[in-house]
Amino acid sequence: MFQAGAIKSNEVSDRSLASIEEAELRAEIDNIFPDDGLTITERAYAEYDAEQTSYVKVFNAENELVTQGLTTENDELRQLVNQADFLTQVSGQKYYRISE
């Protein structure tokens, strides 16, 4: 009889432990993936758009700064970036050189 009671109390504590672990796991997942109402596809497009919005600097063959700014706000800058060679990216800024 005593053994049956001990087994039953262990089952109850195991269930409560499992539900605590499940709640902690759900909270951790919610922190990683915010519930912003976006689907996975919409979130991927939003992240892609954010990556495309970058501050760039374009240099000429003599390493002189030709122009700089956000490619999303300046069509001429975007065209220069498309013609230029990518050099490096540092702290969110991308550097390009136009070879003449």
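[next item in queue]
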Amino acid sequence: MASLPSRTLLSWLWGVPQQVHQDDDASSSPQRFSVTPRIKELVHMKPWAIETQHVSKQFPNGAYALRDIEWGVQEGETMALIGESGSGKTTLLRLLNRLAEPTDGIVFIQGKPACSQDPIQLRRRLGYVPQDGGLFPHWTINQNVCLVPQLLGWTPIRQLEQVTKLLPLLNLDPAQIAERYPTELSGGQRQRVAVARALAADPPIVLLDEPFGALDPLTRHDLQDQFLSLKTRLQKTMVLITHDMSEAFRLGDRITILKEGHIHQIGTPQELLHSPATPYVDSLIQHYHAHPG
């Protein structure tokens, strides 16, 4: 039996209140490292689409999920976030769309403080793919993909044109699946639909929370291929959470490595492979070399 949509997705679109709680991305033992990248040390090739300045997130019990994060994502860049459970990845993603608010510091989205932007309007301007896809089980694929365009007041004809354009980009045939329901699709097809929905309103920024993590290896590799094709074609700014270093290397223009709420390194795949900044990063690279698949 299909489950109901998560409260996270409802909060994203309509602002349903959501209790702030300590999840598995919160750490009770934050630790300071000597090598912490700063935004001023990064090369500004393009304007920042996303920027955080001295951002921390502390929970009521005193535990920190993030501490003093200075970080940026350039326009058109795909940034992969990687780290073990409790590293702060999901918390950082939630700060970008105001599903959570920082305890200290400022998050900027397209040059404007996120806190000065209406959270509902902000979320509707950001594409979002949650871990489980978040499709509405009793809506057709067409209705799911058109959710945000409908909320934005697009005409039915324009919505239909967008579905007809997007689904083929993800190897989906609109004539075959547009009037079907999520439970009638395979796991890989559902994730493709979730990505199509995130792109439907043509957002400048797309946030993806482990979008391929629950899929079998062959389907996952196929979806990664589709992601790379879309990335080249659409030139969106994207933030992708993953636990898989090989996936981060394959999909990310740059990679941010988090541990216990701190950034250990930001760099291209080649920079991480050849110049790991901390023992933790080095251990991840050694594991990647031992298990590259």
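[queue empty]
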